Amino acid sequence: MSQEIRNLEPKALWNKFADLNAVPRPSKKEERVIEFMKNFGESLGLETFEDDIRNVIIRKPATKGMENRKPIVMQGHLDMVHQKNNDTDFDFDKQGIDMYVDGDWVRAKGTTLGADNGLGVAMIMAVLESTNIAHPAIEALFTIDEETGMTGALNLKGGILQGEILLNLDTEEDDEIDIGCAGGIDVTATRSYHEEETPEGSVGYQITVKGLNGGHSGMDIHKGLGNANKIMNRLLFDAFENFGLQIVEINGGSLRNAIPRESVANVIIAEMYDEAYVFDMQEIIGDIKTEFQTTEPNLTIEITKIDLPKKVMDLGVQEGLIRGIYAAHNGVYRMSADMADLVETSNNIARVIVKDGELSIGCLTRSSVETSKYDLANALRSAFELFGCEVNLSGSYPGWTPNVNSEILTILEKIYEKQNNEKPKVVACHAGLECGILGTNYPDMDMISFGPTIHGAHSPDERASIKSSQKFWKFVLEILENIPEKK
């Protein structure tokens, strides 16, 4: 771990972030970071425990003179999205994140940084460890598995938390205060298919789509970024229509909450069409790169010859797959009619796997309106069922309905304006914050969400602003000093 990270100001925040990032913490494999956090709380002599699902709760009494303030919950999630560049040799299960300073940004070498939500967690840790920060009674809630199912928040039982106000430190623009978010649901289509013998007189090719920006499938879905699975499908569709291309296998995308950056497909073409196919593909590749030249300047599409495979996908199922993915919606489905510039409903075709007689398509559908979420999920379901897939809707979680009359919102607005000489943007976001889920069992808790500026979350381009972290630190400390008195 580079010492230059630990020397950044505020040191209390960056040192805790460095400590946290030394611990492997993939979603659904949080055992080590759970023990790390429990040891941290116990080392401070604070009440520390796990709930039934393994969320970690640490309680710290109010500092002197703050005993009459409302108790608060400071909340962040322990897991992080694991993404790396193809040419990066890194084992997320064993290695800590390798960070470096690049101007105003902290980055990781070829991987995600973990600032989502590591900086929020580090802030809470710094407050818990402090001896000179004024604050009311605090419950630090560190949830698990936020990134791949919201499991920790969904399984947190009512009655455990005593706080009246929740500060969720998990947003990514420091001039925004979030008061609402989208819910989500996983849409997964699967089916078996028959593999046929490769026809004689064929040649094998590998198609590779790479170099896309990727990004957060909620926060970045409106930016016109390329989806590797959709781009790959265009290439397959054209070559199937014009040259009878047959699919051997496809491996596209990775996590549901990451816009897919890469896709690789092995295919065959009749040898008689070999030259025409390559010429046609170069024209289509040129067209696609022209379309995306502004948002995806590093897009690369390669077509290379490979050894002829022994088996190919059944043509009937293949046609249904290609047409089904073409028909399936990807990107923004509907903008909010109630909040300007807010994406209401969207879908990310995140993962496409075709191999050894089995295919799978994984999507994450998001919406701040529950009925619209299921409307789009059912549209996707229909597109996939039309070619014989079994479609499973799972992992549904609710959105967070904005409360414009929130007491803590008023306090944060005043502090922000005083510190920055401008008003904050009060927004709802198209990401899946845990507030809506936590509010199910804690409906009377006043909730707010904010955080430092983080760009490129869920991609190896993830980076955190150093200047913004200083702004974030100052903001949190004054919020803690101004928590209202108990009624």
UniProtKB/TrEMBL annotation:
Family classification: Belongs to the peptidase M20C family.
Keyword presence, Thylakoid: no
PANTHER family reported for this sequence: CYTOSOL NON-SPECIFIC DIPEPTIDASE (PTHR43501:SF1)
Domain of life assignment: Bacteria
Swiss-Prot/TrEMBL cofactor(s): Zn(2+); Co(2+)
The name this protein goes by in its record: Cytosol non-specific dipeptidase
Record domain Peptidase M20 dimerisation: where: 208-275
GO cellular component: cytosol
Record keywords, A-Z: Cobalt, Hydrolase, Metal-binding, Metalloprotease, Protease, Zinc
SUPFAM superfamilies in the record: Zn-dependent exopeptidases (SSF53187)
Catalytic reaction annotation: Hydrolysis of dipeptides, preferentially hydrophobic dipeptides including prolyl amino acids
GO BP, sorted A to Z: proteolysis
EC number: 3.4.13.18
A single MF term (Gene Ontology): metal ion binding
Annotated source species: Flavobacterium noncentrifugens
